């Protein structure tokens, strides 16, 4: 596994920056290993809801997990407010960094992640395939 570590700065959008990083780095199968930092806006989709919920304030990122690929991401965030109350859900565009986000992403050798329509769920779901290098053998 190859690892990438970077820091996001105040005002940047957490999800958009992660997706852009995966595209720039040509990551075929990525996982968020860790992320800590703070947000001034959170935008999450909670379980079994179609709409997103936005909160403004100051929040600590206590967990960010998920998968990254060239054609999308599936990320879940858990944050805490000033009282230490935790909340979390599906990360959406619009989560704005307050002071920092320290991110470590793992790139899985030998695999390719893709998002494809799934008839059973109605969503674009993760499909995992072995990576085949240019000469036809399995990479990694």
List keywords for this structure.
140 residues, mainly beta, 60s Ribosomal Protein L30, Chain: A, 8 strands, PPC_dom
Q: Care to describe what's here?
A:
The protein has one domain: Hypothetical protein, similar to alpha- acetolactate decarboxylase, domain 2 (60s Ribosomal Protein L30, Chain: A), CATH 3.30.1330.80. The radius of gyration is 16 Å and the shape is globular. The mean pLDDT is 94. It is mainly beta and 140 residues long. Strands 1, 2, 3, 4, 5 and 6 form a six-stranded antiparallel sheet that branches. A two-stranded antiparallel sheet has the order 7-8. It has one helix spanning 14-24, and strands spanning 2-8, 30-45, 53-69, 72-80, 86-91, 96-107, 111-117, 124-130.
Task: Calculate Rg over CA atoms.
Answer: 16 Å
Task: Find the CATH superfamily.
Answer: Hypothetical protein, similar to alpha- acetolactate decarboxylase, domain 2
Q: How many strand elements?
A: 8
Largest sheet: 6 strands, antiparallel
* Helix content percent band: under 10%
**Based on the structure given, which CATH architecture is correct?**
2-Layer Sandwich
Distance between the termini: 9 Å
Estimate what percentage of residues fall within beta strands. over 45%
At the first level of CATH, what is the class? Answer: Alpha Beta
Structural class: mainly beta
Poorly predicted tracts of residues: none
């Amino acid at each position: 596994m190859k690892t990438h570590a970077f820091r996001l700065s105040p005002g940047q959008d957490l999800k958009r920056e992660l997706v852009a990083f995966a595209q720039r780095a040509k990551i075929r199968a990525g996982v968020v290993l860790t992320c800590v930092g703070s947000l001034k806006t959170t935008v999450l989709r909670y379980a079994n809801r179609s709409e997103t919920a936005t909160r403004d304030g100051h929040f600590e990122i206590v967990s960010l997990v998920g998968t990254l690929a060239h054609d999308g991401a599936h990320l879940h965030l858990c944050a805490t407010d000033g009282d230490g109350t935790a909340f979390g859900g599906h990360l959406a565009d619009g989560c704005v960094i307050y002071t920092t986000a320290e991110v470590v992403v793992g790139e899985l050798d030998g695999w390719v992640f893709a998002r494809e329509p799934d008839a059973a769920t109605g969503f674009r779901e993760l499909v995992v395939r072995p990576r085949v290098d240019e000469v036809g053998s399995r990479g990694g």
